[in-house]
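As a warm-up, study this chain.
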Amino acid sequence: MTQFNLPDDARAAVESLRNADIVIGIPSYNNARTIGHVVRAAHAGLAKYFPEATGVIVNSDGGSTDSTRQEVLSSQVEDSHLMMISTRVSAVHRLSFPYHGIPGKGSAFRLIFGIASSLKARACAVVDSDLRSITPEWIDLLIRPVLYGGYDFVAPYYHRHKYDGTITNSIIYPLTRALYGKRIRQPIGGDFGVSLPLLGAYLSRDDWETDVARYGIDIWMTTIAVAEGFRVCQSFLGAKLHDAKDPGADLSAMLQQVVGSVFSLMQQYQQVWESASGSEPVELFGFRYDVGLDPIDVKLSRMVQAFLKGFGDLSEIWSLALSPPHLDALRTLAASARLVDPRHFHIDDELWAGIIYEFAAAFRAQPPVRSHLVKSLTPLYLGRVASFVNETRDMSAAEVERRIESLCVVFEYLKPLLVRRWNGDTAPFPKLPDSRQPAPGTALEV
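Now compare it with the structure written out below.
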């Protein structure tokens, strides 16, 4: 167990405030263009929905060189919100501090959690600083289940463009759902509500100096909440409009840190996930509705070329994780991809689930090459995203969601083979029966 000491300036602010009911955290780095809107939405949400609560908005900044921190402290609430604020019983305090430690999102979260815990806040929410779609209602939806519903962790549920969140859709959601049996649709969504007991559990851990300090923080939070038995729910927040990226762009650092965190947590919580079978829905709050979404330009050819280059350069490292049948399947894919239009490239669900499961088992079995293994996943991931783009190009949002559901079902069905491989059995993964699409909650008998 570690002891987190607040920086001097943050500690002085906490001693001045003494306590708070609600803390809203906003991590940032060079977000001057968008953070003012996020601060105003958080301020208005506290005023409208929790007028009798003492609220604190904390900006944890990673050394911005623009005017991010000034925007936080100077942002004015629009005239339309003044009536709400005039009825407040308690003031909203705004604080902005640079965080210390490993540069990254997780270090920013740690400072926010430390302040919230020191203030003995009954609930804490964290929202991204690049959000353009946040409304005051988000604060209500992230905080109310904790304050009044007895939940410890509120995960976000968004409508997103079908090519936004591809790491979630292709790896993290299917894998964590199959592992821990909870259908948390956005396990790395970036916007959360957390109870004081769960904050204490986070702050007491010893792994803050790992990838958790960077992009691994979101899945780390979700996994701990589920695996340690805290009460978990979701809130529908509408659209997530933010500074989205082309999935073919360089997301390799994020991929490596998120997947590495998942694989590391699998070792700690092996007894939990090995005994979980199938999956169950997680309660969802909020009114669901359809929303307009920003288009995302996808560079299909670039993703397929990245896969081909990866096959040429990384086959040796892939062979440390993948069984001969899976390597042969990738070899066949690479050969055909050189001859056909990238719009026909396809990696099927069984192969993809098998690849992820074998990489997870290799991560456990071969500590000296863990970083190389996780890094080598990038071209495989890009190939899977290219396949997903090809398959869903003409699908509606609802059809895409059903397609992701079918991938999750395959992950669940093949999970017993992960258990076998994890425990040293190198028998090949059998094919799913052609005559059967497994139903949710079923698993392969092994």
